[in-house]
């Protein structure tokens, strides 16, 4: 052990030599390998976008958006599924957002900190991981048939999807509420405001950007969901516009599915074109969410 | 509790004085009597556009404890961390000047920071053992650096040198480093640094998170280690600097210059007869 | 002492008055509580529905046949209801999607947490998360028409690769869950205290060594949780496997054959013209119940790990 005392006179080298040089080379190499792995997923996404645009881009036109399904592929459009998507997503927002935000407010601002809160929290975490198709079964048994018996209608589909995205909205909202500094809360409470006045005037406004981000992402999940809606009875062929909540429905993802699994290739360009429309909707929602998040973070 | 602490400190101070009589070097400002282990030459450092060190020059003596003191924000930690290039890890750092170690400027283009850090060990403010066993903690540096000898022997000798062996010898291969007390964790971190066989050990406020008794143990250990190693310590605790160090550097940031060296000399001298008015003000508690 | 108690009583009375003064506050509290209870209710109703609806199935098919035989042939005679062929199908997709997603996702997490500059991370992370937001029916289309047709069959020979196969589905599934693994693992690694990294660098470690020998092991619980979450997503995913992996129950982990997963079977029943009240129809709920139990356990375990882990560094 005494040999480790190098005196100042003994020449040493601090250059990367031997073992250290090799280790540093590995380390530098790892930078490129890891960066490449990070980009790999994005590369696949680019490849996917390219292939789908190549296949379906030519079919995009105003007619495609405004025509019903036809026997001939070239005349077919996505009017019914597009309108169905808009109706259902609209109802889902109206139903799931208030309940989700209220649940988050209860959890973060009102609930006694006890086992019940823990149970609610863990339960919501678990619900967020329940497969969509299980919600589909629930919707089928409860809303389509069973106690509510709405049949295969827009309202049954919207209720089912609302339950599915509720946990996502709750999780995002409670995270946003938690990030509002406690000093704001304490300041308001110290001035004699009630809990609800504090939440309504101070906490909630501060959490709005976070809530919006989470909600938009959840809604974009709902807009892309197919399995659940097949279970609650999305129709294969709809040839008129929806006129009320008790109408039958179809939506874009289900239309894409039915074109995709159709034997033969003649409806594949239609599927690809519908995918482009769906992706534009979903990616726009995602982009809005990211912009809100980044803007919020900078403030 | 406070009384105990004061009593311990007093006892410690007299002990240290008796154990290590030293020859104050008259007139030395930046040059200790013993050979130089690390020489700082006109060092300046910027974090982005913010300057943190301004033209610092001083030499740390071999096998001496040198203390860096000064109010917070004076650049003492930054100076310490530039001695083993830990500042490289922060994005946007720019450095001018030289840090000489064995006659080599460690900021020379050809120098590899990994090689520097392997020879100049560091102990941090908060004890930071890895979430691994005590044994693995000590063996870590030696392992990554391709140590070929008997690992068991190395680990044992380092634990002994860090005065931790007797407390952990029964279970050091099974027990997690995190299961130790704060003071023990810090001694484990010292043992871990020793396993790399450094000749300089940097300590960044190593006792600031510890209780007085654990602090006392670390200070004893420093006096023991300095027989073989060069130790440079940053401390915000002037009594500690007085107790353990042979040389002390006082740094200051004022409204004009950030991170400058005000005064450097044998500890006793600096504390009893400071040459600079600002040093005197600081050690007599008039600011900082 | 008595005076203090009296004061406390006074205060309590005043405080109670205050609540009564704001009856609106109580109404709001009640409303919020009702909303919060909807989530608990949902879980209860899911569990109850599945049990009630699966119950008739188990009157026709013994639990023993369901759990301890391996042949699944629900939609044609002679019927057989041994769930293991469907479980194997799900396992097949989990295995092969993990083979691709695990290394790539973890490498991306390490890159984002330990290598990328903050600016690059701010751009790359949301971009990567877009992958998780792509509707699964789009991935399904991509797997069937491009991965299998244009990549796998030319590469491995058209005779060796079924039109629908587990590999094509697994590859796109991997792309879908890479962000889950990368994002959650990156969070876990970013939560490793800076002091640990500094300690390792201070001992002369390279960036690679710090990442793999210190940060990665310290973040392992969070990383495991991310993998469990990802597995649970693969198990629950329906469209990709229904479209691209096939509808042939098959007790194999071989990736080039047509298989059927639990979710794939459920979708097949839902899209087919199976009459209500038949054993086939009821089997939908039996498989759904199995799926629910499986994912619920996985998610619960993942959550416990994450909770325990975040406490450790708080």
Topology:
The complex is a heterotrimer of chains A (299), B (288) and C (314).
Chain A: H1 18-56, H2 62-66, H3 79-110, H4 115-128, H5 132-144, H6 154-178, H7 182-190, H8 195-223, H9 227-231, H10 252-261, H11 268-298
Helix pairs in contact in A: 1-11, 3-6, 3-8, 3-10, 4-6, 5-6, 6-8, 7-8, 8-11, 10-11
Chain B: H1 2-19, E1 36-47, E2 50-61, E3 65-69, H2 76-83, E4 93-101, E5 104-105, H3 113-119, E6 120-123, H4 134-144, H5 151-161, H6 165-168, H7 182-194, E7 200-204, H8 212-225, E8 230-234, H9 238-244, E9 247-252, E10 260-266, H10 267-272, H11 277-283
Parallel strand pairs in B: 3-8, 3-9, 6-7, 7-8
Antiparallel strand pairs in B: 1-2, 1-4, 4-5, 9-10
Helix pairs in contact in B: 1-8, 1-9, 4-5, 4-7, 5-7, 7-8
Chain C: H1 2-21, H2 23-60, H3 63-68, E1 72-73, E2 80-81, H4 84-115, H5 118-133, H6 136-156, H7 166-190, H8 194-202, H9 207-218, H10 220-236, H11 239-245, H12 262-271, H13 279-313
Antiparallel strand pairs in C: 1-2
Helix pairs in contact in C: 2-13, 4-7, 4-10, 5-7, 6-7, 6-11, 7-10, 7-11, 8-9, 10-13, 11-12, 12-13
Key attributes of the depicted protein:
heterotrimer, A: 299 residues, mainly alpha, 11 helices, flat, disordered N terminus, C: 314 residues, two-stranded antiparallel ribbon, 79% helix
């Amino acid at each position: 052990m005494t040999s480790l005392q190098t005196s100042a006179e003994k020449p040493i080298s601090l250059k990367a030599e031997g073992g250290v040089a090799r280790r540093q080379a590995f380390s530098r190499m790892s930078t490129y390998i890891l960066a490449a792995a990070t980009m790999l997923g994005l590369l696949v996404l680019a490849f996917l976008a390219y292939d789908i645009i190549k296949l379906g881009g030519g079919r995009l036109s105003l007619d495609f958006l405004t025509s019903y399904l036809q026997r001939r592929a070239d005349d077919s459009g996505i009017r019914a599924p597009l309108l169905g998507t808009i109706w259902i997503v609209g109802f889902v927002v109206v139903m799931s957002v208030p309940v989700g935000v209220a649940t988050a407010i209860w959890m973060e601002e009102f609930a006694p900190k006890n086992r019940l809160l823990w149970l609610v929290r863990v339960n919501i975490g678990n619900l967020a991981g329940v497969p969509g198709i299980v919600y589909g079964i629930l919707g089928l048994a409860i809303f389509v048939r069973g106690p509510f018996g709405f049949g295969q209608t827009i309202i049954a589909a919207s209720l089912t999807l609302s339950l599915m995205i509720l946990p996502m909205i709750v999780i995002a909202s409670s995270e946003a509420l938690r990030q509002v500094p406690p000093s704001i809360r304490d300041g308001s409470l110290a001035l004699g405001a009630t809990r609800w006045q504090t939440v309504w005037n101070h906490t909630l406004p501060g959490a709005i950007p976070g809530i919006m981000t989470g909600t938009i992402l959840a809604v974009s999940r709902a807009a892309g969901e197919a399995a659940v809606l097949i279970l609650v009875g999305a129709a294969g062929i709809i040839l008129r516009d929806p006129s009320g909540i008790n109408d039958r429905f179809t939506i874009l993802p289900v239309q894409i599915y039915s074109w995709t699994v159709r034997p033969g290739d003649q409806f594949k360009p239609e599927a690809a074109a519908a995918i482009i429309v769906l992706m534009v909707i979903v990616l726009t929602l995602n982009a809005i969410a990211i912009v809100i998040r980044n803007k919020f973070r900078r403030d | 509790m406070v009384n105990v602490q004061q009593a311990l400190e007093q006892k410690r101070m007299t002990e240290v004085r008796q154990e290590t009589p030293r020859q104050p070097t008259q007139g030395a400002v930046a040059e200790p009597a013993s050979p130089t282990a690390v020489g700082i030459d006109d060092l300046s450092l910027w974090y982005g556009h913010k300057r943190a060190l301004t033209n610092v020059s001083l030499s740390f003596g071999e096998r001496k404890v040198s203390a860096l003191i000064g109010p917070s924000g004076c650049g003492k930690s930054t100076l310490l961390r530039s001695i083993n290039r830990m500042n490289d890890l922060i994005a946007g750092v720019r450095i001018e000047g030289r840090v000489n170690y064995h006659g080599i400027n460690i900021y020379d283009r050809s120098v590899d920071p990994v090689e520097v850090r392997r020879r100049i060990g560091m102990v941090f403010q908060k004890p930071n053992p890895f979430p691994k066993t005590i044994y693995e903690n000590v063996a870590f540096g030696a392992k990554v650096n391709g140590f070929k000898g008997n690992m068991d022997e190395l680990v044992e000798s380092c634990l002994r040198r860090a005065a931790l062996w007797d407390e952990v010898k029964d279970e050091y291969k099974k027990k997690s480093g995190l299961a130790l007390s704060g003071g023990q964790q810090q001694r484990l971190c010292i043992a871990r640094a020793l396993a790399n066989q450094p000749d300089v050990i940097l300590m960044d406020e190593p006792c600031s998170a510890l209780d007085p008794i654990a602090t006392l143990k670390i200070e004893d250990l420093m006096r023991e280690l300095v027989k073989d190693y060069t130790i440079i310590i940053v401390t915000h605790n002037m009594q500690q600097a007085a107790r353990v160090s042979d040389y002390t550097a006082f740094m200051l940031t004022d409204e004009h210059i950030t991170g400058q060296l005000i005064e450097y000399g044998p500890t006793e001298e600096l504390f009893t007869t400071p040459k600079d008015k600002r040093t005197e003000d600081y050690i007599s508690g008039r600011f900082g | 002492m008595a005076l203090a108690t009296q004061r406390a009583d006074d205060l309590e009375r005043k405080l109670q008055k205050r609540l009564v003064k704001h009856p609106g506050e109580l109404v709001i509290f009640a409303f919020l509580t009702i909303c919060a209870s909807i989530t608990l209710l949902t879980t209860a109703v899911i569990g109850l529905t599945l049990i009630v609806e699966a119950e008739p199935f188990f009157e026709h098919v013994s639990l023993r046949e369901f759990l301890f035989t391996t042949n699944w042939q629900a939609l044609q005679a002679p019927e057989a209801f041994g769930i293991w062929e469907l479980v194997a199908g799900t396992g097949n997709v989990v295995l092969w999607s993990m083979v691709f997603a695990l290394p790539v996702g973890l490498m991306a997490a390490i890159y984002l947490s330990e290598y990328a500059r903050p600016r690059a991370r701010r751009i790359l992370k949301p971009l990567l998360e877009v992958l998780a937001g792509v509707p699964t029916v789009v991935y399904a289309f991509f797997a069937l028409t491009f991965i299998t047709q244009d990549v796998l069959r030319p590469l491995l020979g058209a005779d060796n690769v079924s039109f629908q196969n587990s590999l094509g589905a697994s590859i796109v599934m991997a792309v879908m869950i890479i962000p889950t693994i990368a994002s959650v693992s990156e969070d876990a690694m970013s939560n490793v205290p800076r002091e640990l990294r500094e300690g390792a660098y201070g001992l002369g470690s390279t960036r690679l060594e710090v990442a793999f020998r210190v940060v990665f092991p310290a973040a392992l619980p969070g990383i495991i949780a991310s993998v469990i979450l990802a597995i649970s997503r693969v198990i629950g995913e329906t469209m990709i496997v229904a479209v691209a992996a096939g509808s042939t129950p098959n007790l194999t982990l071989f990736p080039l054959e047509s298989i059927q997963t639990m979710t794939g079977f459920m979708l097949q029943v839902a899209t087919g013209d199976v009459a209500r009240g038949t054993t086939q129809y009821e089997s939908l709920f039996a498989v759904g119940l199995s799926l629910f139990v499986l994912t619920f356990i996985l998610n619960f375990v993942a959550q416990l790990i994450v909770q325990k882990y975040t406490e450790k560094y708080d």
